[in-house]
Amino acid sequence: CGVFGVIGVSDAASFVALGLHALQHRGQEAGGIVSYHPEHGFNSARRFGYVRDNFTRTDVMATLPGSLAIGHVRYSTAGSKGATAIRDVQPFFGEFSIGGCAIAHNGNLTNAAQLRRELIDRGAIFQSSSDSECIIHLMARSMQRTLSERIKDALRHVEGAFSVIAMTRTKLIGVRDPLGVRPLVLGRIGEGYALSSETCALDIIGAEFIREIEPGEMVVIEKGEIHSSRPFAPAKPRFCIFEHVYFSRPDSILGGRSVYETRRQIGVELAREAPVEADLVCPVPDSGTPAAIGYAAESGIPFGMGIVRNQYMGRTFIEPTEQIRNMGVRLKLNVNRALVRGKRIVLVDDSVVRGTTSRKIKDMILDAGAAEVHFRIASPPTAWPCFYGVDTPERSKLLAASMSEEEMREWIGVDSLKFVSLDGLYRAVGETQGRNRECPQYCDACFSGEYPIAPSDQIAKGFQI
Ligand code: 5GP
Ligand code: SF4
Ligand code: MG
């Protein structure tokens, strides 16, 4: 998911709409905005579909006045499987004796099922099936006298990954979980401030990037001032390495590094680790493009767009049903026959999850007359599900969970298949010594199976680490 909020600008909701549009790659199912205006109070609009189709309409935007607003773009992740209902669309809003508060959450809480049961037993009436709603009910039960203290209180009870943006009548609040699994950044716009999942959404509104919210940090922005605090016990950060590989936009800056440059560098590592004799390096666009550029540069093999992407399609993986995803490949990608015919192709993609994409692309490229296909993947094999806010399927559907690399190669049907190593990936994100085995610098659970936060709801359901 993606979150964005702004304070201290007139017509804040329009800025939020722009920010969410720039974060659309983080969630395409639905979006929502809440704004506050001293005369009109809190207002909200929550809609299915793209930001550009909903939050450009004057009839919608006219209902969201004020100089303070937050928003969310959604895609359903582990825990909330299936089609999204409009009641699951954030931001969520709670009216307490001490005032109203809206929250937007990116990430996934790993103890939400447990919390929900306890809260329901104590009388909470849940409106949605979302894990994030727990935060509102925990706030309702807190005895603290300010809303920001109640948010702290609530977040001390949750486990998992959370980058949360919240707003009261006067404050814009941002919090990251102690490990800082999901991103959250701070920007300045005129006299006001913005909080965003990624820097690319600051760019679109012309905001200046100030810094990241740190893991375990809470910022409260009010009347042009920023107050920072540390509500949680200190922990060693474990940012999601997959944000670098796929999830974030290539024009964003994560941890001081250009995402594009990291992806290009993964391609360089891949070319060193898994060279092959070939005539052309082709990305699976767009997710494989920067890594393919790096592979081509390092190997000296020419780069070409052997596959062309229809720009009017979204991200396939983020489509929640298998049926749409299966159709997705052909709707989205087509082979540039004139370029690939007769050639030995190095095909570069960011990841293999179920393997269905890879298999179809291989068919398409062989149909077009390629002589050989060598598949190179800019991440290690995805063998474990993510419980922290990226929608990987259950373990049994992950190709790498049950097959060796050679079995995957055969199943996909390519001449060779190589994944970048975990150490290669760590080098590409700037860890020159590779992965620290005792204390890894990132979360890489989907590749290593080492979960930095125990997925307790899953364990209770029988998931074995
Ligand atoms: P597959 O067909 O192997 O299940 O899908 C892999 C493709 O899905 C890759 O091309 C990758 O770009 C894309 N993808 C989109 N979202 C995700 C995600 O959240 N996780 C992973 N691993 N791949 C994703
Ligand atoms: Fe990111 Fe993978 Fe960790 Fe999920 S399991 S937070 S996708 S690195
Ligand atoms: Mg892709």
From TrEMBL:
Residue ranges of the TM segments: none
Residues of the active site: 1
Annotated metabolic or biological route of this protein: Purine metabolism; IMP biosynthesis via de novo pathway; N(1)-(5-phospho-D-ribosyl)glycinamide from 5-phospho-alpha-D-ribose 1-diphosphate: step 1/2
Catalytic activity: 5-phospho-beta-D-ribosylamine + L-glutamate + diphosphate = 5-phospho-alpha-D-ribose 1-diphosphate + L-glutamine + H2O
SUPFAM superfamilies: N-terminal nucleophile aminohydrolases (Ntn hydrolases) (SSF56235), PRTase-like (SSF53271)
Residues bound to Mg(2+): 287, 349-350
Gene3D superfamilies named in the record: 3.40.50.2020, Glutamine Phosphoribosylpyrophosphate, subunit 1, domain 1
InterPro entries xref list: GATase_2_dom (IPR017932), Ntn_hydrolases_N (IPR029055), PRTase-like (IPR029057), PRTase_dom (IPR000836), PurF (IPR005854), PurF_N (IPR035584)
Positions of the Glutamine amidotransferase type-2 domain: 1-224
GO biological process: one example: 'de novo' IMP biosynthetic process
Co-factor: note: Binds 1 Mg(2+) ion per subunit.
The protein's enzyme class: transferase
Pfam family, one: GATase_7
One GO MF term attached to the UniProt entry: amidophosphoribosyltransferase activity
Obligatory cofactor(s): Mg(2+); [4Fe-4S] cluster
Binding residues for [4Fe-4S] cluster: 240, 386, 443, 446
PROSITE patterns membership: GATASE_TYPE_2
CDD domains (UniProt xref): GPATase_N, PRTases_typeI
Entry keyword set: 4Fe-4S, Glutamine amidotransferase, Glycosyltransferase, Iron, Iron-sulfur, Magnesium, Metal-binding, Purine biosynthesis, Transferase
The protein's Enzyme Commission number: 2.4.2.14
Sequence similarity: In the C-terminal section; belongs to the purine/pyrimidine phosphoribosyltransferase family.
Task of the protein: Catalyzes the formation of phosphoribosylamine from phosphoribosylpyrophosphate (PRPP) and glutamine.
Protein name: Amidophosphoribosyltransferase
Organism: Albidovulum inexpectatum
